[in-house]
Amino acid sequence: MKSKEGQTLALSLLTSLFVLIAGVIMLNFLLPEIDIFRTSLSCSDVSSISNGTKVLCLISDATIPYWIVLVFSLVVGGITSRLRI
């Protein structure tokens, strides 16, 4: 019986590449929405915002790094799920 590990590894690489490209494309759609959210909360005016608004501004600032970490963890998980180490 033939081993199909080479085929599944190539398929997981292609799928992970697709997920990476889709994640980067979705990031371009998220950036304007985050800017609109930050301007509507007036996050740049530090003196006039309340504590709850400060938390929302911090969460909106952390959206981009969390998205990047999510996409890369999906890509690495997709690639390494087919490897038998």
Secondary-structure element sequence?
HH
Write down the overall geometry.
elongated
Low-confidence stretches at least 5 residues in length (pLDDT < 50)? Answer: none
Number of strands: 0
Distance between the first and last residues' Cα: 21 Å
Total helical segments: 2
Overall radius of gyration: 19 Å
Which structural class do you get from the secondary structure elements? mainly alpha
- Please indicate the count of domains: 1
Biggest β-sheet description:
none
Please give a handful of descriptors for the protein shown.
85 residues, mainly alpha, 2 helices, 0% strand, elongated
Could you explain the architecture of this structure?
This protein has 85 residues and is mainly alpha-helical. It has one domain (13-80). The protein is 79% helix and 0% strand. It has helices at residues 5-41, 51-80. The longest helix has 37 residues, at 5-41.
